[in-house]
Design goal:
By secondary structure, this protein is α+β, with helices and mostly antiparallel strands. The chain contains 19 helices and 8 strands.
């Protein structure tokens, strides 16, 4: 379907809904997106894909877009907090079921919707909410992000055109919280905690340094530290033992992945490529790398288990998502009889170990290189993104993310 809205990284233009669908899916496909542990999910891919398919956002300045983005992430965070982690434990992927509301709120903000129109948009979107983490490790997992962005654009369009919906879809009998919540859900969080403080201030949003499931990142970090401490390469290591908290392997379903998508949700694979490749980048998670012989050999010496020892001294354990609760422990035993271990509580990229601009630039350039963009234009583009608040027209910057 032809239209005016860009598919990022290409010369394609399509309808608003299709552009949001494709851009949201592509933004999540590399598992290089953000992490909001309160959700737990990845709202930015959904919110920004929707904004890139919105005339009001494309014609706005960077400050207004940042404002809409912040409002959107805040709204989704508070809905998720009201639902509690039981929503995720039931099998829902909150990026699809909750970040949808982040995108609706961002679009409503940038379009300056009335309260009534915003209520209608939220009511419509609630009937679109979907996503199950049983599809992790498949192409459908990143589709959750694209589908949420597409559904947000559709809901806002329908609300603008006057389609009616329940104005109190969260509270009403048979509404969103009845269907998606649990006995622990508490709607008071939505209103009582909004902006008090803002989620970007507390607890903050994580930016991934490795292109794979966040639940693997503490293991990767421990592996990289141990390699440096022991001064070892892959041939020097006899055994790797990794322990994760109870429940820590729920999102990490694949002990021996066979595809790129499965490798993104595998702790043994993440440890293997960290051992073999050093800092794992996008090339560490390609199909050809997944089936390489050295990876198979490394997987043979890696043992990953859930352990109660990873709960110790973490009183807030039950309130954390699977990728951030407790600690992850990694031990390396070398062929010459040495051994060392590391325990990691906070993953790199977490607000308490925040990404630096240099790290963000390196991540951006890695993505640009894989996409075939030359380094000089990529560096210039990163500088403009870094100064987004002063960008006079967001659409002009989006155009730089497409090809002629």
């Amino acid at each position: 379907m032809r239209g005016p809205y860009p598919v990022l990284g290409t010369a394609l233009r399509t309808s608003a809904e299709q552009a949001a669908l494709v851009n949201g899916t592509l933004s999540a496909a590399l598992e290089f997106d953000d992490v909001l542990s309160l959700m737990p999910g990845h709202p930015s891919a959904v919110v920004m894909a929707a904004l890139c398919a919105c005339d009001a956002a494309l014609n706005a300045d960077g400050h207004a877009v940042i404002e809409a983005y912040a409002v959107g992430v805040e709204a989704g965070a508070r809905v998720a907090q009201a639902l509690t982690l039981d929503h995720y434990k039931r099998g829902f992927h909150a990026t699809g079921t909750v970040a949808l509301f982040s995108a609706v709120a961002a679009l409503a903000r940038i379009e300056r919707f009335s309260v009534e129109t915003t209520q209608r948009a939220i009511g419509i979107a609630a009937s679109f909410s979907s996503g199950l983490h049983g599809n992790f490790g498949t192409m459908t997992k990143p589709l959750h992000s694209g589908w949420a962005a597409r559904n947000a654009v559709a809901a806002v369009t329908l609300a603008r055109c006057g389609l009616t919906a329940s104005p109190n879809i969260f509270e009403t009998q048979g509404g969103y919280f009845d269907a998606y919540g649990s006995p622990s859900s508490d709607l008071a969080h939505v209103e009582g905690l909004f902006g008090n403080p803002w989620v970007f201030d507390e607890p903050g949003v994580t930016l991934k340094l490795f292109p794979c499931c966040y639940a693997t990142h503490r293991g990767i970090d421990a592996m990289l530290q141990l390699k440096q401490e022991l001064g070892v390469g892959p041939d020097d290591v006899e055994r790797v033992i990794c322990r994760v908290p109870p429940g820590g392997l729920i999102p990490l379903k694949f002990a021996r992945p066979k595809t790129h998508f499965e490798s993104l949700f595998s702790m043994p694979y993440a440890l293997a490529v960290a051992l073999l490749d050093g800092h794992p980048g996008l090339r560490s998670f390609k199909d050809g790398r997944v089936l390489a012989s050295d990876v198979a050999d490394a997987l043979g010496i890696i043992e990953v288990t859930e352990s109660e020892t990873c709960v110790a001294d973490h009183p807030d354990f039950a309130s954390k998502s699977y990728g951030s609760r407790g600690e992850v422990q990694v031990e390396i035993r070398t062929r010459d009889g040495r051994s060392a271990s590391r325990r990691v509580v906070i993953a790199p990229g977490h607000p308490d170990r925040a990404v630096t601009w240099d790290q963000a630039r390196a991540k951006f350039l890695d993505c640009a290189q894989v996409a075939g963009l030359k380094e000089a234009p990529a560096r210039n583009l990163f500088q403009r993104l870094q100064a987004l608040e002063s960008e006079p027209r967001f659409g002009a910057l989006v155009a730089e993310l497409t090809t002629p």
